[in-house]
Amino acid sequence: MTRVCLIEDDAIMGEALVERLTLxxxxxxxxxxxxxxxxxxxxxxxxxxxxxxxxPDLSGIALFExxxxxxxxxxxxxxxxxxxxxxxAVRLLKLGAADYLTKPLxxxxxxxxxxxxxxxxxxxxxxRQEVSEHERxxxxxxxxxxxxxxxxxxRHPQTPVLISGESGVGKEVVARxxxxxxxxxxxxxxxxxxxxxETLIEAELFGHxxxxxxxxxxxxxxxxxxAGAGVLFLDEIGDMPLALQSRLLRVxxxxxxxxxxxxxxxxVGARLVCATHRDLAALVRAGHFREDLYxxxxxxxxxxxxxxxxxEDILWLAERFLAEHGARFPDERxxxxxxDRQWLLNQPWPGNVRELQHTLxxxxxxxxxxxxxxxxxxxxxxxxxxxxQTEAGERATILAALVEQDYRMTQTAARLGxxxxxxxxxxxxxGLSRTEDxx
Length: 439
Ligand SMILES: Nc1ncnc2c1ncn2[C@@H]1O[C@H](COP(=O)(O)OP(=O)(O)OP(=O)(O)O)[C@@H](O)[C@H]1O
Fold this sequence. Notes:
Rossmann fold; 14 strands; globular; binds adenosine-5'-triphosphate
């Protein structure tokens, strides 16, 4: 008997659906709130989920995002949407929902879809099969989504992947995480296209035969060959000279290359993962990047948000860097104090994770005992006006409370001693709003 979790707050509709589904031979676990549903879905045993998008405590979308964030191996999930909210439906499908039905609901259509899903869905893995803490990329919903995405991409090892994001967000870290999931025993070879002189890139990528040019005394395999059946990470792909782009395209298309000065084709087994901090589409428009290569390398794209857009990761990463520093230098084991946390959350981090890492390293070195010396590096704050400082302090306090309370409005407001309305107004004012939660 297929076990279905139904998350529906409307009593009449819920009862009717339970009755019909039971008659049709499904075992139904009916939950009336988003939070109760979330708890049910985190338990193993349920095979399919039917979720109403409009729930009173937690929207269906927020619920689904939390499931993804908690790394639950997603069940085939059908959503019920009302009011023709097609944007919601599209968003859910993109996030991985199996399908959606609109209200007024046709129970027959629901049964048909559930039967089809039950017939095709694989047995479920244990939902608590967490990756080790060491393997994690972050705890923000954005990074959890990327982790889940990597699990999917690892199952399609031939398809090129493009990783985009500002400098220092962790593009190489993500590429390595994909490699670990896909083929940890095979090589990971990284090449920075911006760092190599134009004259050397071609030989570096494709290799050369003996005598191919002056100084080529031996045959040398290029990085494509060195990567074997592993991953070739081409960083700063936007800086690749145009002439080489067409050659790269041919290799990606045919999965074969010829070394410089050679005639024999060599099979390419590696997965190509490209990265860029530049706007590739703009480079295409400006004629600096080939449009066909652009489409080829970005079949699958992972866009890593800047650190300022995922504040949940700041303290998590900070703790991690502190622990790493402490492990290397046992005399410099430092701890974050409340004021340090607020300060960290309040910074814009234009250099992203790299800047955070360097800041903490410096603060560990300059610190004493368990204390870090973070704020001595903050000269900008001293130069701002009193009003700006007050506002910055207020923003940081609110952000810290939001992160601590997982963005639950009621709890956060209680923690701060203000009303929900005031909290909401301040969140809007400081750009801290998160639309997903109504907690
Ligand atoms: N999720 C993460 N967990 C731990 N460390 C991270 C994470 N993301 C980034 N880092 C650290 O931040 C630094 C920058 O990361 P990385 O080199 O991957 O960024 P990038 O986006 O490739 O940068 P660039 O565009 O400058 O090449 C590295 O030292 C890396 O170890």
